[in-house]
């Protein structure tokens, strides 16, 4: 490995490691989901399908996107919620008197931008407005896209299941107002919201040495907005 | 490969997948329609062998069990009515419902083509269709 490549891996280790772990987990989900789907087909006396057909199926698509939407919703809410909501003692929170979007000076935008600030942070028009909210916009956009994909794929997968059970198919509007869509959505949302609430409060009292998600080990419980 | 090259490749892949997916949806609808038309022609002609050939394996087995004879000997005893022309075809994945003038038929895709899973089906309020012929 060249020095340049080693440096690239070191500089991007977090993204690379989690990106590769994501691909491995998705591959595992594909194989396990394929086997489970064929078990269901066999129980109904129907023909099994190949892995490629399963990967192109609405069944696989809805199982993937229902988890994606909830993850992006979690980050969207976390990013937006932490602008205004505080948790005394948590490294995930700003200090108690800093609630809100903060001043231009604190955010280093417009006339307070520095030479190394991103270009759109230095502007004073719509570009600064958009760039100031770009992370939340991206996460919110990805949430809406993946939730819509869940609704489309979920409708098709649910109707395929209904036809196997000799029931009439449902229209898309009926599906998105129905139990399957909301059960899939809410069961994912509740777990993501629990994780955020747990992280906010546990990080007040517990530490993980060396992690930027934790306060330094010796920091008092009451210290807010302190990260390693 | 450059970043833009990888991006182009990804978009080409997504376009190919969506084209294949959309293309096969119409093909599957036509194939389910054709299989139903063949089945109904066999019902109209009283061709028991052709009717059994159009049935899914599990449905054929149920016909044999209920008639305590071969499928061809039993299927005419099910008294399936001739259902007339196809009115609507709904296909989701590898399952289909075909509504005809006087009947509703459910089909599933098998390696050898679409097969009738249930026929002689009547809708029931908030419950599955009640079918004269169906698998276990």
UniProtKB/TrEMBL annotation, chain A:
InterPro entries: DUF6766
Transmembrane segments: 135-158
Keyword annotations from UniProtKB, A to Z: Membrane, Signal, Transmembrane, Transmembrane helix
Highest rank taxon of the organism: Bacteria
Short name of any one Pfam family annotated for the protein: DUF6766
Signal sequence bounds: 1-32
Tagged with keyword Transmembrane: yes
This protein's name: Uncharacterized protein
């Amino acid at each position: 490995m060249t020095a340049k490549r080693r440096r690239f891996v070191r500089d991007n280790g977090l993204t690379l490691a989690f990106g590769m772990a994501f691909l491995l987990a998705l591959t595992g989900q594909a194989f396990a989901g394929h086997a489970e789907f064929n078990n269901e087909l066999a129980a109904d006396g129907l023909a099994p399908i190949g892995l490629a057909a399963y990967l192109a199926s609405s069944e696989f698509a809805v199982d993937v996107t229902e988890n994606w939407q909830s993850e992006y919703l979690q980050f969207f809410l976390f990013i937006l919620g932490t602008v205004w909501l505080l948790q005394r003692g948590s490294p995930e929170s700003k200090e108690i008197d800093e609630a809100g979007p903060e001043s231009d000076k604190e955010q280093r935008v417009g006339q307070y931008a520095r030479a190394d600030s991103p270009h759109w942070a230095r502007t004073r028009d719509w570009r600064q407005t958009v760039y100031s909210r770009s992370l939340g916009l991206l996460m919110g956009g990805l949430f809406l896209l993946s939730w819509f994909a869940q609704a489309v794929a979920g409708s098709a997968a649910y109707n395929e299941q209904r036809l196997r059970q000799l029931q009439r198919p449902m229209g898309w509007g009926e599906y998105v107002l129905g139990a399957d869509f909301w059960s899939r959505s809410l069961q994912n949302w509740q777990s993501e919201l629990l994780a955020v609430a747990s992280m906010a409060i546990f990080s007040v009292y517990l530490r993980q040495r060396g992690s930027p998600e934790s306060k330094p080990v010796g920091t008092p419980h009451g210290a807010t907005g302190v990260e390693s | 490969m450059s970043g833009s090259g990888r991006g182009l490749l990804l978009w080409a892949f997504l376009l190919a997948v969506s084209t294949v997916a959309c293309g096969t949806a119409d093909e599957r609808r036509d194939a389910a329609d054709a299989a139903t038309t063949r089945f109904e022609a066999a019902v109209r002609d009283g061709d028991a062998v052709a009717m059994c050939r159009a049935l899914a394996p599990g449905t054929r087995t149920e016909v044999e069990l209920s008639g305590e004879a071969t499928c061809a000997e039993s299927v005419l005893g099910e008294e399936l009515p001739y259902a007339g022309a196809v009115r609507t075809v709904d296909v989701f994945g590898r399952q289909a419902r075909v509504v005809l003038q006087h009947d509703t038929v459910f089909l599933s895709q098998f390696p050898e083509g679409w097969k009738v899973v249930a026929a002689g089906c009547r809708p029931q309020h908030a419950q599955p269709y009640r079918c004269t012929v169906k698998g276990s």
